[in-house]
Amino acid sequence: MPQILSAVPFRHRHDREIFALAIPTFFALISEPLFLLTDSAIVGTLGTQALGGLGVAGQVLLTLVAVCIFLAYGTTAAVARRFGAGDVPGGVRDGVDGMWLAVLLGAVAVAVGWPLGPVLVDALGASADVAPYALTYLRISLLSTPFLLVVMAGTGVLRGLQDARTPLLVAVASYVGNAALCAVFVLVLDWGIAGSAWSTVIAQGSAAFWYAAMVVRAARREGVSLAPTAAGLRSSASAGFALFLRSVSMRVVALVTTAVAARLGDASIAAHQVSYNIWALLVFAMDAIAIAGQSIVGRYLGAGDVRGTRDATRRMVEWGVMLGLVFTALVFLVMPWAWIPFTSDPEVRTLITASLVVVALMQPLSGVTMVLDGVLMGAGDQRYLAWASLWTMLAFLPFALVLPWSANGSVWGLVGLWTAFAVWILARTLTLGARARGTAWLVTGAIRP
């Protein structure tokens, strides 16, 4: 076996550490969009309006998750730096404070999101037939927010400690349980779209308690107090603010895309829900390398190894491109049948197939973008990421507001929308690539100043 591996042209000295983190992360990440696709298929049995409602509410919830993603990504980078510098107790301390911050933010999200539900659904352009489904799903699923944010923070702690296997086990268990409950609640008990939402609440709650138990055990092992500290909460919030701005810019792109699709018609928003989840499935798969990059780059910079950081980054970018090419071929292969699990509506079927052409073609660029985003995040270069996300969002908006409406026909309207989305991916690739070629992000030490 060693002789065979040494003869493989893609063999590289960093592959072992990349794969040790990326492979478990890959399966953990794709479990979420696979569940969302399963959820879409189950809710799709309730009709086009229910599927569209899931798409609208899902974007609101994904926005909430995205703007709080610093709880996972920021924690991963901070803990990995401490780990690389040999300060494991300091890393666990950062993680404990991050989980307390997650609880506080989750409670605020529920308190604010519940009364604003109708406003948020209306802002995304849901029709009168779609809006009731969207509001029902949104309000129930909001109850899972504190659990979900705790899961994100706990994931960041373990990945920063170079443990990608435990997050895999938690993700697979929670999403399998979620899908099973969804099927029972919707298809057997006939709870409608509310059944799908309640299954999410139960599954996320179980995962949150699992992560809390893991972090408590790590804290006791390292002699770290479980009580929150004011300084730690401020530090976690401050470090995450730039990532918050980055995430807001990215979610504006997703929300505008959804809002435009909703205004193109019920068939377009239903098709967009499916195409977007397929795109998310592929991006999450490539994001496995990016998240491995957060852990690896943080550890190398914490240990002061700039050369190792450069070499590992180059290799991860190569894998991002290769995965992107594989996914391009895969999407084209399944495209004629991709609509089957989700709809029997001929118009929705045509729209799904047409939009997937653009989804397929953007995959190599998506691979580069995901990897470089993770690398710079692992380096703690959040300020640049915030500004880059803002400028690329501004580059996207004119295309999103012009291309769909200038297209002649409903099919070309959705294709135009996805073309605008591809312009955004290209802009992100260029801005992140320019940064990675420089040296400003290569700051070493246990704590980035």
Automatic annotation (TrEMBL):
Coiled coil: none annotated. Keywords: Cell membrane, Membrane, Transmembrane, Transmembrane helix, Transport. GO terms for molecular function: antiporter activity; xenobiotic transmembrane transporter activity. It comes from the Bacteria. It is a multi-pass membrane protein. CDD domains: MATE_DinF_like. InterPro entries: DinF-like, MATE_fam, MdtK-like. Belongs to the multi antimicrobial extrusion (MATE) (TC 2.A.66.1) family. This is Putative MATE family efflux protein.
